[in-house]
Amino acid sequence: MSEVYRGRAPNIEINKITREKIKFTLSGVDSSVANSLRRVMIAEVPTMAIDVVHIHTNTSSLHDEFIAHRLGLIPLISENQDNYDFPRDCKCTGHCEHCAVQFRLKVKNQEGGVLDVTSRDLRHLSQQGNDVRPADSDGPILILKLRKNQEIDITCNARKGIGKEHAKWSPVATAVFKYTPDIYLNQQRLESQFTAEERKEIVNSCPVGVYKLNEESNIEVVKLNKCMFCEECMRKGEMIITRSASALLNVHDNVVRVSQLKDRFIFKVESSGALKPESIVSKAFTILTKKLDDIKQLIPPLINTR
Fold first, then answer.
1. Alpha-carbon span 213 to 216, nearest angstrom
2. Which residues contact 202 (CB under 8 A, 6 or more apart)?
């Protein structure tokens, strides 16, 4: 088994990438590595988020703690988070330009009606840290609403952290993977023992449209990665074969077989807006590699002490 693992050649293939999402295939690794990468993306890739909130005035209908919580969950663009220290590593006693970016939220409704206070009302208190700002390019993020003569005055610090400490620092909205499907079609039996109508039944049994009939009414796999392992196609094939038989069909005799490739995984990662999706994956690989290097350095001393 160890020789099998040594012979693998890890590889990553980008299938689709947009401003918010990335879909890629990771191959040549064990499921433990794939899951480690997923967990690192969720919990250990650092971002910036509002962490310390000082409320000077609040006459709105929301409690101080509720407003602080909503401020913390506003995603902040954190592509330059490497320029900032973790608060625990900074030598300052409170906050400084090396570990924090300060914002001010000061709004008063003097016009009447209802005034929306959004992420675009957050203002930097200094020129430093302009690279850290709310990720609201698709529209302002609502924080609270003010009626006439209500006001809010808040000073808050954005600091660096990771998802293990609090979910507000997690850079992903979704990070999942699945095994790559492997579908076998016994074309010889399908053509000789199944009618065109029966082959159509198998095609229509798939809820996500993995199969289609070609011009010769033969089944083709057209959307392999859409397969969600429901095995409806396998059951439909079994039902058609055993319609006139009383014995149950052996799974290896089925005309359709769905299995999983154990060293090939399809990842889907959706960014919260704090980091670009490709940056999340790249930083996760860097962090995971460093962890493995640290373990590698610890092993020889342990062996020598035996």
1. 8
2. 194, 211, 219, 233, 236, 237, 240, 255, 256
Provide the residue range defining the domain that includes 90: 48-169
Predicted confidence (pLDDT) per residue in 224-234, tens digit: 989 999 999 99
% of the chain exceeding 90 in pLDDT: 69
108-162 confidence digits (pLDDT tens): 999 889 999 999 999 999 877 788 999 998 899 999 999 999 999 999 999 999 9
Place of tokens 């699945």: 178
Provide the b/e sequence for 189-210 (b: ≥16 CB within 10 Å).
ebeeebeeebbeebbebbeeeb
Phi then psi dihedrals of residue 118, to 5 deg: -125, 180
- Assess whether 178 and 272 both reside in one domain: yes
Q: Identity (one letter) of the amino acid at 150? A: Q
Task: Specify the pTM.
Answer: 0.84
How many other C-beta atoms can be found within 10 angstroms of the C-beta atom of residue 139?
9
Residues 160 and 16 in one domain: no
Contacts with 35 (C-beta within 8 Å, 6 or more apart), sequence order: 177
> Tokens for 167?
């979910």
Do 85 and 201 reside in the same domain of the chain? Answer: no
Backbone angles phi, psi at 34, to 5 degrees: -60, -45
